[in-house]
Amino acid sequence: MAIEPRAGILDIQPYKPGAADAPGVANPAKLSSNENALGCSLKAVKAFETAASRLHRYPDGGASRLRDAIAREEGIDADHIVCGTGSDEILQLLGRAYLNPGDKVVQSQYGFLVYRLVAMQSCARLVSAPERGYTTDVDAVIAAAGDDTRIVFIANPNNPTGTYISDAEIRRLRDALPPTTLLVIDAAYTEFVDAEDYDSGMALARERDDVIVTRTFSKIHGLAGLRLGWGYGSKAIIDVLNRVRGPFNVNLPAIEAGAAAIADRDFMQRSAQHNATWVDFLRQQIGGLGLEVTPSVCNFVLVHFPQTAGKTAADADAFLTRNGLIVRGVAPYGLPDALRITVGKEADNRRLVDALTEFMGQ
User: Fold this and answer.
1) Is the dihedral of CA 161, 163, 167, 172 positive or negative?
2) Could you state, in order of their start, the residue ranges of all structural domains in the chain?
3) pLDDT score at 1
4) Which of 146, 200, 208, 238 is least surrounded by Cβ atoms within 10 Å, i.e. has the fewest?
């Protein structure tokens, strides 16, 4: 007889990443995981390769070199930074540190799936606040949170919708929450946003001790394979997270590559420019086929399909896969009629539009 795990663990559905293979198709275009179409900084690659000569050494347990590099580029205090194996680990550390069984956690309706995992791992209660137009509704979040919520998770901009709320709205939310509620702003896609009314939340986290912002190297920096992220908040919050993380949670090559990547502003700028061009292209071209495309400030678009037999999201997913184009179904988010499509290289983007044109016309 198997040893029983803690109550609630077997109710958790493991996170399923975007597919990477299309059966029977050689070298398919992977547009399922919001990876950087341009790859990563060559400076990061060189730093990673150089680190190979020191693989017998333990990494710096505090990732000091990486935190210092982040602090220089962001203009913040390194003592207010904690690093992790992707921003996912920071989110999980927050659950481990601040959630007790039965505590309430609030997210927006189509919030990132990891928030649900964090709540369930801690035996906490997850409440989803309805969105408006696939965008976080601050009033709904405030109403759902009430006076007894322990953590509010807000992805800004949000995955999988690609939408964002303004800095003013984030501040209004924080002001309406009780001081006993921790506001977690997941800003994984912040570098792609150029809207004047947007802020990553870093300024708010600098001002208050009840806000933390999580960031990642997986998107604009193109280091998804290294699993590297960081969080920024008050010294009190960072101190708590340092007490619950593993002593060597970030490996040595990741520290070195991350420090090089965040200093390569030219690569970041080229990545943002590529994305701005092609996310607009995808929205216009796919929208022209009669499909609804949610306006996105990220490196992906959310495309909605009809429920007509032969034209559904599942039908489109299967058709695209057969044609070597791997996208992401988002039914687990409560969006069974939509697909999330990552911005790829120019050739992949044009190929995708051609394939969807054929699909809708057949």
Assistant:
1) negative
2) 19-39+266-361, 42-264
3) 77
4) 146
CA–CA dist 290, 216 (Å, integer): 34
Picking from 220, 288, 203, 176, the residue whose alpha carbon sits closest to that of residue 37 is: 220
- What pLDDT is recorded for position 237? 98
Matching residue, tokens 């559905």: 13
* Nearest of 124, 192, 143, 122 to residue 342 by alpha carbon: 192
For domain 19-39+266-361, the CATH class is alpha beta
Residues in the chain: 362
Distance in angstroms (rounded) separating the CA atoms of residues 280 and 253 = 35
For domain 42-264, give the fold.
Answer: Aspartate Aminotransferase; domain 2 (3.40.640)
Quick check: helix, strand or coil at residue 337?
Answer: strand
Q: How far is CA 134 from CA 161, 248, 338, in A?
A: 6, 39, 12
Structure tokens at 104: 């309430």
Q: How many CA atoms lie within 13 A of 124 on its CB side?
A: 27
Q: Given this model, what pLDDT does residue 264 score?
A: 98
| 159-181 pLDDT tens trace | 999 999 999 999 999 999 999 99
User: Which class for 197: exposed (0-12), middle (13-18), buried (19 or more C-beta within 10 A)?
Assistant: exposed
pLDDT in tens, 179-233: 999 999 999 999 999 999 999 999 999 999 999 999 999 999 999 999 999 999 9
- Residue 274, H or E segment: helix 265-287
Nearest alpha-carbon partner for 229 in 45, 17, 70: 70
How far apart (Å, rounded) are the C-alpha atoms in residues 239 and 237? 5
**What three-state secondary structure class fits 214?**
strand
- Contact between 212 and 231 under an 8 Å Cβ cutoff? The reply is yes
Q: Under 8 Å CB-to-CB from 55, ≥6 apart: which residues?
A: 252, 253
DSSP-based three-state secondary structure for 3: coil
What is the pLDDT at residue 13? 85
Q: Cα–Cα distance between 199 and 196 in angstroms, integer?
A: 8
Q: Distance (Å, rounded) from C-alpha 328 to C-alpha 341? A: 6
Q: Which residues of the chain have pLDDT under 50?
A: none
Q: Is there a contact between 261 and 217 (Cβ–Cβ < 8 Å)?
A: yes
